[in-house]
Design a protein that fits this description.
The protein is an alpha+beta fold and about 525 residues long. The protein has helices spanning about 15-20, 35, 80-90, 135-150, 185-195, 255-260, 275-280, 310, 315-320, 325-335, 360-370, 390-405, 420-425, 440-445, 455-470, 470-490; strands spanning about 45, 55, 60-65, 95-100, 100-105, 105-115, 120-125, 170, 175-180, 215-225, 225-230, 245-250, 270, 285-290, 295-305, 335-340, 380-385, 405-410, 430-435, 490-500, 500-505, 510, 525-529. An 8-stranded mixed beta sheet has the order 1-14-21-13-3-12-11-10, sandwiched between helices. Strands 16-20-15-19-17-18 form a 6-stranded mixed beta sheet. A 4-stranded antiparallel beta sheet has the order 6-7-9-8, with helices on one face. Helix 9 packs antiparallel against helix 11 (about 360-370). It starts with 13 loop residues before the first helix and ends with a strand.
Length: about 525
């Protein structure tokens, strides 16, 4: 069995890392550490949304962080929450990642024949495109070939597992055969985690007039960086949504999104800051909502083991033991989160809930650094504000490393520079957030990036086994082994898990957190009576 990383390329692109963490460029108003440390109790948040049945009619207006003029209708291009919210309601995927695992969407099954070295996709029947034509295997074959093209801004990582360019229709219009490149035991999870939005056959450009999907809402107008307007598609295979229209507002600044709801210009503001939530709802009939404990975002730092100090297991252990996670959680999350156990992927299937949060031991941490000859040595931390509080957490992290004896310093850059390959390579630790993605995505895709990877043979073998086996129990055992390696000696310093907060009108319902609560699925959005 090969122990190579599932994504063998060591090249890093900024968009590739953004695709991994599921974020685009956002701007948030973040309080200083002094302000964060306030002892004022956090205002309570409502988990989920109203349970009442949505009435038919109305226009739902939702504000998300966008990417300005770079926003696109091409689902292989955009990475901002506004882009991704648009794609998820306009297009469909073969499988969706819901409640921590893959669920059928345009495909009802994915089966691998190891002898024939191919995956057979069984497609849903009766699906219509927004222009009234039927969805068939030809659409999926075109989508796979389109994503495999080297001309794409970011070719699909599925190409490491499947020969997408050689995909072909099966014996009927609702079967697709895709050759495999390596053993795959759970193809549905790989397809679900890849953000593979299906586009119509022969599509090679995306304009407001020409773009059609199979999703619950069809496009009526689009202005990059400003707004997207959509209308209910009554021919949707899973039933039309309650709202007649959905308007997506592209608003970079978190406080501006809050103001839009407060002033009646929007019904929903995605991803609001902890400080805003702590102040309470800014008006009557409004709610601060959290997406639930299983959908928290994990905050942490990835140690670059290509550098001298992080490559030493004693240094990694010292940092795991020496940092004050409680102080970080209190200062950054303001009551909306809890300490983490150095693992990403919380909420996903096979995640190990029984791995404890390391007990802080400053004395042992100092001894380990001294034995490693690291005391007094330079240690560079790099950060950008991709999540509210990342920069503040990095500031405190650096101070804690100094207390342990490292000559720690901080490189704070803009979000356009945050995951620059050269900049990442020159640092010892990189601030890093990750939502509730599948373990296959978290472990195998990060292995592709030289500055994020942990080249450990036991870890690589466990990940390869987890991805290739067809046995659910063997897969669970393999993921357990991989996670214990990362918790014990890995390069992840995942220190806290934060609630994902939003502001909404109390009557707004139907928000479904599928891929990520930062860009929820809006196919059933509407208003209670």
């Amino acid at each position: 069995m090969s122990h190579r990383p599932a994504f063998p390329s060591s090249s890093v692109t900024r968009r590739g890392v953004l695709a991994l963490i599921g974020l685009g460029v956002t701007t948030a108003s973040v309080p200083s550490l002094a302000g964060c440390a306030s002892d004022k109790a956090a205002a309570p948040a409502v988990t989920g949304a109203p349970t009442g049945k949505a009435r038919r009619g109305g226009t739902a207006r939702l504000a998300f962080a966008g990417a300005g003029a770079s926003e696109s209708l091409d689902p292989t291009v955009g990475t901002s929450p506004c882009d991704l919210a648009r794609y998820s309601v306009l297009f469909d995927t073969l499988f969706s990642f819901t409640d921590g695992e893959a669920k059928p969407a345009l495909a009802t099954a994915a089966e691998v024949d190891s002898k024939a070295k191919r995956c057979t996709l069984t497609l849903r029947k009766g699906v219509k495109w927004h222009d009234g034509t039927s969805f068939t295997a030809a659409d999926v074959v075109h989508t796979l070939k389109y994503r495999a093209s080297p001309d794409r801004v970011s070719p699909s990582e599925l190409s490491a597992y499947f020969d997408l360019a050689s995909a072909k229709a099966g014996d009927d219009d609702h079967t697709v055969l895709v050759p495999t490149r390596q053993p795959v035991g759970d193809p549905a999870t790989l397809f679900a985690g890849a953000g593979l939005y299906v586009i119509k056959r022969n599509t090679d450009s995306f304009t407001a007039k020409s773009t059609v999907g199979t999703g619950p809402y069809r496009l009526t107008s689009f202005k990059a960086g400003t707004e997207t307007r959509l209308e209910r598609f009554d021919g949707y295979w899973d039933g039309g949504g309650p709202a007649d229209k959905v308007v997506l507002l592209s608003v970079d600044d978190a406080q501006a999104r809050v103001n839009a709801v407060r002033d009646g210009q929007a019904d929903y503001a995605s991803d609001i800051s902890f400080a805003t939530a702590k102040a309470g709802a800014p008006g009557t009939g409004l709610q601060i909502r959290d997406a639930g404990k299983d959908l928290r975002t994990t905050y942490g730092f990835v140690l670059n083991v290509g550098r001298t100090l992080p490559s030493d297991p004693r240094v990694r252990e010292a940092i795991k033991l020496g940092i004050d996670r409680e102080a970080l959680v209190k200062a950054v999350f303001l009551g909306y989160g809890k300490p983490a156990n150095d693992l990403f992927g919380a909420g996903a299937k096979y995640y190990l809930d029984d791995v404890p949060v390391p007990e802080r031991d400053v004395a042992k941490a100092k001894r380990l650094l001294k034995k490693a000859g690291a005391t007094g040595k330079p240690f560079v931390v790099r950060t950008a504000e991709y999540e509210s509080g990342l920069n503040s957490s990095a500031e405190l992290f650096v101070e804690q490393l100094k207390e342990l004896g490292l000559d720690a310093s901080l490189v704070k850059v803009s979000t356009t520079q945050g995951y620059d390959p050269a900049g990442m390579k020159a640092c010892d630790a990189i601030s890093f957030p990750l939502g509730p993605v599948s373990l296959a995505l978290a472990y195998s895709r990060s292995a592709a990036f030289e500055t994020l990877a942990f080249p450990d043979k036991e870890l690589q073998g466990a990940v390869a086994e987890a991805i290739s086996t067809t046995s659910d129990s063997a897969r669970a055992d393999a993921w357990a082994k991989a996670q214990r390696v990362m918790a014990d000696r890995g390069n992840w310093i995942a220190w806290g898990r934060a609630d994902v907060l939003s502001l909404a009108k109390a009557k707004l319902t139907g928000i479904e957190n599928r891929e990520s609560p930062k860009y929820p699925w809006l196919g059933k959005v509407g208003f209670t009576a």
